[in-house]
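Suppose a colleague, Dr. K., hands you the sequence of a protein chain of 185 amino acids and asks what its three-dimensional shape might be. Before reaching for any lab equipment, you can write down a predicted structure in token form. Begin with the sequence itself:
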Amino acid sequence: MKATWPTSKVSLSFCMDKFGLKDIGTSPNRGITGKYKTNIYIASTGLKEITEDWAYMSIDRDALGYIVMMPAAMRVDPPSWLVPHELGHVFTYHNGGEVPYEWYEAVANFLRNEYLGSDYYSYGGRVYGPDSDFFAPFILNSESHFPHTKNWYDAWPILLYIHENPDHINGLGHQAMLNLLSYGQ
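The predicted structure, expressed as tokens, is then:
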């Protein structure tokens, strides 16, 4: 069972038009041609290939990213924070970024947080942004290096620092984040 809803279209538009990431509609596998939509499958609907999990991103046999979510993870009003997070994984994969496993969740939360801070975070004419989450595990587990399994979803502030570059350090900024998400080197 596939689903589309306003949040996914808005998140796509934000990632491509506002943030500058490449379109996720083509397969990294050069043998697969044409344009494709990113599938969003609903978990707990009896699909044999779908793992029963809250939300995750995976890759199909044609090397196209897809998203799986439980029904409760797909809230429309206010828009779910899970959709832009999982879509962040799809964008990272399709843009060629090779994010080390420890940073995988922090990168998705960074992209999600950028979306939440924009006027794209909206539904039915109502803008919900800017919004953000309090990264409590990052603060509460400050004795742990980051990203650590206790805080890896919440290590995104360092990526925000790189992106915003408040100290004007040469080589940091928006282009540095695009490079991290686009080049596997």
